Amino acid sequence: MILLDGKKTSNEIKEEIAKKVVELKSQGKKAPHLAAVIVGENGASLTYVNAKVKACEKVGFDSTLVSLPIDVSEADLLSKIDELNNDDNIDGFIVQLPLPDHIDEHKVTLAVNPMKDVDGFHPENLGRMMLGLPCFLPATPAGILELLDRYDIETSGKSCVVIGRSHIVGSPMSVLMARNTKVGNCTVTLTHSRTQNLEQITREADIIIVALGKAEFLTADMVKEGVVIVDVGITRVADDSKKSGFKLLGDVKFEEVAAKSSYITPVPGGVGPMTIASLMLNTLQAIDMK
């Protein structure tokens, strides 16, 4: 079993980006500028956004953090998005999800300028992805592709099962793994809550990408020997033995599934760091797209 080390790989990518930023500055160009909008004080969201800010510092990007109160009106949030859309100094920005119930996430997603949508959530970017046109790929799926690529994992002709059909990970992942690209050319099965005989489907898979948000959902009896496992899930579970009071679990029962895997991502330290690295790559791409 080989660990797909997202932390190590993301650091390598950040070092590559940092060198490109130095080159940009040597040519008299400005450093890429990423902004993040966060509403309220959700612990997981704050941790994730702070990690993005630190990543910007590491690669030499400028960054702006826009913190809005939990009771901010939808109109005021949309106004802030419009301001960022029209700020030539901002190359890309993200609006951290989830948003409070009184705010329509779809309306917010549509309000972001597709040319600054470095999360890759806007329908225009998703549509261009479907057609294989230049676009911002959704950050988590793009990070998974990068991880598979850098570990030279053969995907062509393989059976890939994606568990979970979210618009953020599962659905775009299924499209990307089927594309006629180096990391792609899989026969993809997209499974979800209505799928029947899931265990039968997963036991035939060469590659399984799990994005459910259900702790330790995938167990050893659901996979075959030599499978490649990508665990996107991350759930906080109470643990009094930890200083933080909780531990992080993925969607895969790691120890028992790892014993049957050829490659597997850990949680934490797998897909999460790759998502942030992809966000940095998308922001760098935004400079070129201008």
Molecular structure report:
This protein is an alpha/beta fold and 290 residues long. It has two domains: 27-113, Rossmann fold (3-Layer(aba) Sandwich); 139-272, 3-Layer(aba) Sandwich (Rossmann fold), CATH 3.40.50. 40% of the residues lie in helices and 18% in strands. The protein contains ten helices and eleven strands. A six-stranded parallel beta sheet has the order 1-11-8-7-5-6. Strand 5, helix 7 and strand 6 (187-191) form a beta-alpha-beta unit. Helix 2 (43-59) crosses helix 10. The radius of gyration is 19 Å and the shape is globular.
Properties at a glance:
290 residues; alpha/beta; Rossmann fold; 2 domains; three-stranded parallel β-sheet; 10 helices; 40% helix
Helices and strands, with pairings:
Elements: E1 2-3, H1 6-26, E2 33-39, H2 43-59, E3 62-68, H3 74-85, E4 92-95, H4 105-111, H5 123-131, H6 139-150, E5 159-163, H7 170-178, E6 187-191, H8 198-202, E7 207-210, E8 227-231, E9 235-238, E10 246-249, H9 254-258, E11 261-264, H10 271-289
Parallel strand pairs: 1-11, 2-3, 2-4, 5-6, 5-7, 7-8, 8-11
Antiparallel strand pairs: 9-10
Helix pairs in contact: 1-10, 2-10, 6-10
